[in-house]
Automatic annotation (TrEMBL):
Residue ranges of domain CBS in the record: 255-313, 319-382
Active-site residues per Swiss-Prot or TrEMBL entry: E58
Free-text comment on the cofactor: Binds 1 zinc ion per subunit.
Top-rank taxon: Bacteria
Subcellular location as annotated: Cell membrane
Transmembrane parts of this sequence: 97-121, 149-174, 195-214, 220-240
Organism annotation: Humisphaera borealis
The protein's name in its UniProt record: Zinc metalloprotease
Entry similarity comment: Belongs to the peptidase M50B family.
Membrane topology qualifier: Multi-pass membrane protein
Amino acid sequence: MSGAFRIARFFGIDLRVHWSFFFIVLLVGMQGASHGAMGILFTVTLVALLFLCVTLHEFGHALVAQRFGIPVREIVLLPIGGVAVMGRMPEKPRQELLIAIAGPLVNVAILAVLVPVWFVLGGFETSAAVGQILESTRGIRIDASSLRAAAFAMLGFVIGANVMLIAFNMIPAFPLDGGRVFRSILAMRMPHAKATRIAATVGQAAAIVLALVGLSTGQWMLAVIAFFIFMGAGAESAAAQTGTVLATRRVGDAYNKTAITLTLEHRMSHVIEHIMTSYQPDFAVLNRGRLAGVITREDVLKWLAETPSLYDVYVTEAMREEQAVVRVQATMTLDEVTKVMEERQTRVVAVFEGEMYLGLVSAEDIAEAQAVLTFLNRRLAEGAPPPRTAWPMPMREAPRV
């Protein structure tokens, strides 16, 4: 995620913090400053502990996802919480159910550890005294008993925060954990797209209720969170609809069959000329009809930035060799190819029929296909006759050089 930097790495997963997170730390620290050094220490430490709980919550999701073979790229801490960025979403409802519920179960485990400790160390009486503790320590002199009492009170706040995390996340409002649990249960009984549509509708309705409560009570943060829930539910519904549309077509029907191709004898000057005179961003480099590599506009720009004076070197100096190019089979659906792109973090793949190279397809190509298919489906639903030229078009053989 842009704007986030790595602070640690656990279980092969990068833990990143978004730069805006530090505004929360600064804001909370300023609020605590009215109580002197003790107030600053208390509030900043409390925020750190709360986000530690959020981090553990997200690692709960991530580790279960890894257990199912789903790659997890990173966990990002944001001012409104955390997010585990997965290479792809789980395909089976049972997997989604277990991944979604794993986060709240981590918070349950935290409560199972902290609640007994809290009662042993003082319980409600200690937590109720935190205001007096802070008022009595406006200066920088802090005695051991005050620190101990503040620590106990902080423990009570952390317990309350975990209870809130569980209760809030389990609201059946997509895309919260509860919404994903709700969808997974629905998906066990109906098509995934329909389950997503229902869960997203419930999520948006819940978001509207939360927003009204937040605005009527002056809880602006609740209204902001409701906004993100509403938008997230809409995005999930749109993504599911896109996946349904793309699942109806093979990538063998969508790759660019008139693409310009290069050979090992071409030089970088030829690539630059093609980029400047065509709208084609990606070029396959062929050797006797077989794929030798791929060079993209991004590769060319990077190469020019590093070696701006070398135009006559062969294209092999800058291309991605065939071994580094992600392959997909022509029989795969566009939806499946999209998932491969997301998992492998690439925007262009090579389409093969067996071992025969056919062409390249990019994320932009799939987006265009999705737009056309959505329009055609809408027209057909309205009763319009199908187009005269059948789509998909037949696949042709690989170009020869």
